[in-house]
Design goal:
The structure holds 2 protein chains of 2 kinds. Chain A is mainly alpha-helical. Chain A is built from 24 helices and 2 strands. Chain A starts with 6 loop residues before the first helix and ends with a helix. Chain B has one domain: Helix Hairpins (Orthogonal Bundle), CATH 1.10.287.3510. Helix content of chain B is 74%, strand content 4%. The chains are: A mainly alpha, B mainly alpha.
Chain lengths: 643, 106
């Protein structure tokens, strides 16, 4: 399967081209089937390649050259793929969860006028995302990086007739540009220092170049800025909640499971750089911990079902970055995978609710849906349990590993751990608030004569499969007191070990102290306790006291409800001044300086014409006189020159 | 020694040509009647022809006389076209006064 591996990337491209160019001529069912099958076949090939690669025994990556691309002087970037443990891991997530979401979309998007266009975009996204993770050099990764950004923009603004959707797409695109600048800067710096952009060569060069450690912090910071934009970290997270304007399967695939994790992937891919950058890593951890707590609090007071999940995604990405920053790469990648399962599940479940209620997204107008849509309810509940960190669901293991590593980190461990435990408590609170308000209690909606019904099989089947993943995926890596499975740790060993060994050799490694089993049990117990506490508060508020929704929040909750006014802050600090400068340039410099200059040219020519037109009298005699005078001038000139 | 043609010095021919040329130019500039202006133009052409012929004889080359033939041929064609124009204008304006022809101006 390794020989035909490029097909994994090519199949979605073919699907995209087919659906894009024939979108007005083919029936919806064909477009959907082609879109889904192209990704699913890719998944099968990836599974085959995974088995053939035998990732637990093989150390070196499998390199595939598709075609030579850019060769300029010493610079070389090819369309080539690096198949190793990390890229296979990401490819399995993208194609596996991707094909489930494609299948789901066939049901969810039914009857939408843009159905074929939707599947074309979705396939283009999968193509770009696979290039991002499989590429063997930074330039091709950047191509994928921009490609997924483009698809994100296209799909957020999918319903482009709606002004809010179009603006949300633009916002996502513009905010991501800031991060992309970091990517370009980082690539340029790496090429400058190491003379190559290929990951395998970078590793060799940097290993043999101890002085690189001096620059590593700068390079790592540039790439982290890129990661901040793509993975929605403070301060560049503002686009992700707005991105919920896109159709729900898009939120599940792009804005929860795959694209937004690209930043985490990038750090793992460039582990050789990041392990040498302890200061930047500390910064990453701080940003991650802050983001996790900050957006978890916002999630607790939102009333749009998708907005809650969006802030939850930002928060969970914060956890991943906390892990990457504290050097717990395996924990970060582990949480990436479990999060892909349960967050895709939650989004698709939310989509199923929205579908059942005919595009109602306000949880104030839901309630009591558990009996009406039982499959959605059960799977959504499993996803909620997983994200809340209740054992033995997957989220417990991955989140607990992150908390453990944060606790054992040599610097500021109490702060990191405290913030993330608090964030985990908030997570449990807002997720159960969501579940309670949507599925339990009395119904607060009017069905307008359309009875609420369970979604079709194309939508429930992905829910069930994802729920299975959300429940069991955690058993790939468990703590000592709980079976002590270390599958993932040994799986990622070949990718991460050289970088870590190198940073230890250079004395830059900040090891997490190893914990005793008692400490592990204690930490896990405490985090479960906090999560349970969050659930109980949520239960108390929404099921026993039945708090009423307020029209107007007061004090602190008003600030939280309004997302800390961050959008307004950015608006007044960046957007308004920028628009002011633009207006000044447009209405002062452009009209007063540039326009006036050209008007002056026209005016001068007009004046000259007004004078010279007096020569054109219309009298033949005058013209004859001009001829004679002209002749005289010529003759005098010739005589003076002495011909 | 100044060359002579049939006993008349070359300067006399050139002087006559200059006088004819000046009369032609003045006629073009001063007169208003299109036909008279035409005649003046012919006078200018012929004064130049005279200069050509004079030098052709004096320097014993034939090229000057050849050019004179060209000029006469062109002048004949020009006279035909020009007079046709004057007649056409006269039919429109009932006048051959060029000062009344001011349509083509700003």
């Amino acid at each position: 399967m390794l020989e035909i591996f490029p097909l994994v990337v090519i199949l979605p491209l073919i699907g995209f081209l087919h659906n894009a160019f024939l979108r007005n001529r083919i029936p919806n069912r064909l477009a959907g089937a082609i879109g889904t099958i192209s990704v699913f076949l890719g998944f099968l090939i990836t599974v085959g390649a995974f088995l053939e690669f035998s990732p637990w025994t093989r150390k070196d990556p499998h390199l595939v050259l598709v075609f030579p691309w850019i060769h300029v002087g010493g610079f070389q970037a090819d369309f080539a793929y690096q198949i190793d443990q990390l890229s296979l891991y990401m490819t399995l997530i993208i194609t596996g969860i991707g094909s489930l979401i494609h299948l789901y979309s066939m049901g969810y998007m039914k009857g939408d006028p843009g159905y074929n266009r939707f599947f074309a975009y979705l396939n283009l996204f999968v193509f770009s995302m696979l290039n991002l993770v499989l590429s063997d050099n930074l330039v091709l990764t950047f191509l994928g990086w921009e490609g997924v950004g483009l698809c994100s923009y296209l799909l957020i603004g999918f319903e482009y007739e709606k002004d809010s959707a179009a603006k949300a797409g633009m916002k996502a695109f513009v905010v991501n540009r800031i991060g992309d600048l970091g990517f370009v800067a980082g690539t340029a710096l790496l090429f400058w220092f190491a003379g190559t952009v290929r990951y395998s060569e970078l590793q060799v060069t940097i290993l043999g170049m101890p002085e690189f450690a001096t620059y590593a912090n700068v390079v790592a910071l540039a790439f982290f800025i890129a990661a901040m934009g793509k993975s929605a970290q403070v301060p560049l997270y503002v686009w992700l909640p707005d991105a919920m304007a896109g159709p729900t399967p898009v939120s599940a695939l792009i804005h929860a499971a795959t694209m937004v994790t690209a930043g985490v992937f990038l750090i793992a891919r460039l582990a050789i750089v990041f392990t040498l950058a302890p200061e930047t890593s500390l910064f990453i951890a701080s940003i991650g911990a802050f983001t996790a707590l900050f957006s978890a609090t916002i999630g607790g007071l939102q009333n749009d079902i998708k907005k809650v999940l969006a802030y939850s995604t930002v928060s969970q990405l914060g956890f991943m970055f906390l892990a990457m920053g504290t050097g717990a790469y395996v924990a970060g990648l582990f949480h990436l995978m479990t999060h892909a399962f349960f967050k895709a599940l939650l989004f698709l479940g939310a989509g199923s609710v929205i579908h059942a209620l005919h595009h109602e997204q306000d949880i104030r107008k839901m309630g009591g849906l558990a009996k009406k849509i039982p499959i959605t309810f059960v799977t959504f509940l499993l996803g909620t349990l997983a994200i809340s960190g209740i054992p033995p669901f997957s989220g417990f293991f991955s989140k607990d590993l992150i908390l453990e590593k944060a606790f054992a980190y040599p610097l500021y461990s109490e702060i990191f751990w405290g913030m993330s435990v608090l964030a985990a408590g908030f997570t449990a609170f807002y997720m159960f608030r969501l579940t309670f308000l949507v599925f339990t209690g009395g119904s607060r909606f009017s069905d307008h004569g359309h009875p609420v019904h369970e979604s079709p099989l194309t939508m429930t089947l992905p829910l069930i499969l994802l729920a299975t993943g959300a429940v069991f995926a955690g058993f790939l890596q468990t703590p000592h007191f709980f079976l002590g499975i270390h599958t993932l740790e040994s799986y990622f060993e070949p990718v991460l070990a050289p970088s870590i060994t190198n940073s230890i050799a250079l004395g830059l490694h900040r090891t997490s102290n190893s914990l005793t089993e008692t400490q592990e049990v204690f930490l896990a117990g405490l985090s479960v306790l906090v999560a349970t506490f969050g659930i109980l508060i949520s239960f108390f508020l929404h099921n026993i006291r039945n708090v009423k929704f307020k029209e107007q929040y007061e004090g602190l909750s008003k600030i939280v409800y309004n997302k800390y006014y961050i959008d307004e802050l950015y608006d007044s600090v960046f957007v308004k001044p920028f628009l002011g400068v633009s207006r000044a340039i447009a209405f002062y410099i452009d009209t007063q300086v540039v326009d006036r200059f050209f008007l002056l040219i026209g005016f001068t020519l007009g004046r000259v014409g007004a004078v010279s037109q007096r020569l054109q009298t219309g009298f033949v005699g005058d013209y004859a006189l001009y001829i004679v005078l002209g002749s005289f001038v010529i003759v005098i000139f010739l005589l003076a020159k002495g011909v | 020694m100044n060359p002579t043609l049939s006993g008349v010095p070359v300067e006399y021919y050139l002087g006559l040509a200059s006088i004819l040329f000046s009369i032609g130019v003045l006629g073009v500039l001063v007169r208003k009647n299109a036909v008279v202006i035409f005649m003046s133009v012919e006078l200018i052409l012929n004064s130049v022809n005279l200069v050509f012929v004079t030098f052709s004889k004096a320097l014993a080359t034939i090229s000057g006389e050849v050019i004179v033939f060209f000029v006469m041929a062109i002048a004949a064609a020009e006279a035909a076209v020009g007079l046709a124009l004057v007649i056409a204008i006269f039919r429109q304006k009932k006048s051959s006064n060029v000062d009344e022809l001011q349509n083509l101006r700003w």
